[in-house]
Write a structure and sequence with these properties.
The protein is mainly alpha-helical. Helix content is 75%, strand content 0%. The protein is elongated and about 60 Å long.
Length: 96
């Protein structure tokens, strides 16, 4: 039974997380680097507005990469976070 303070991810968020978890983490780094490189090329070609537009993708891509990494490591459901926390506490108590 869930309390009023708990929530679960919707089916859309869960489906997106399942698909993005298949991507290697460095794909986000490469995509952000490509955005920066494309922005530089556009700036050299005097296409300043396009350069700014494309260059602003990099931080967003990097934040999505951080989110993806967190989901891979910790999961998104409160139950999985709670289980991992309990398992971690059990293992630290056993090692004492």
């Amino acid at each position: 039974m869930t309390s009023s303070n708990e929530h679960s991810e919707g089916p859309v968020a869960r489906a997106i997380e399942e698909q993005t978890a298949k991507l290697p983490s460095d794909a986000f780094l490469w995509a952000a680097g490509a955005s920066i490189a494309a922005s530089l090329i556009l700036k050299i070609l005097d296409r300043h507005h396009e350069a700014l537009f494309v260059g602003q993708w990099a931080p967003t891509i990097l934040i999505l990469g951080v989110y993806n990494k967190l989901i891979k490591q910790h999961g998104s459901a409160p139950e999985s976070h709670l289980k991992k926390s309990v398992n971690h506490q059990d293992s630290t108590h056993k090692s004492r």
